[in-house]
Design goal:
- This protein has 89 residues and is mostly helical.
- The protein has a domain of 49 residues.
- It has three helices and no strands.
- The model has no long low-confidence stretch (mean pLDDT 82).
Length: 89
């Protein structure tokens, strides 16, 4: 979600700059410079075509903590054993 928020802000700024350029060149009211930025934010945020943000088919999986802990234990058992030298020279 943070990527979508950041992208929305950046697209708003890009649209605002482009709108400001067009409004300045065409000598239109300055308030219209925000319109492209707002339109771009809505399109990036809503993303009706699924072009920017992929939709997960499965969604999030809720795993009980005991099952997750067992998976972690199995991973830890596979780690190589590293011995430490406690003697000081």
């Amino acid at each position: 979600m943070n990527k979508r928020n950041l992208a929305s802000i950046l697209w708003f700024l890009a649209g605002w700059q482009a709108g400001g350029l067009i409004v300045g060149l065409m000598d239109m009211p300055w308030v219209l410079g925000f319109a492209p930025g707002i339109v771009m934010v809505l399109l990036v945020r809503w993303d009706p075509t699924g072009l920017f943000w992929s939709r997960s088919g499965t969604g999030r999986k809720i795993v009980p903590i005991n099952a997750y802990a067992e998976k972690l234990d199995k991973r830890i058992e596979q780690w190589p054993v590293v011995e430490t030298d406690t003697r000081r020279v």
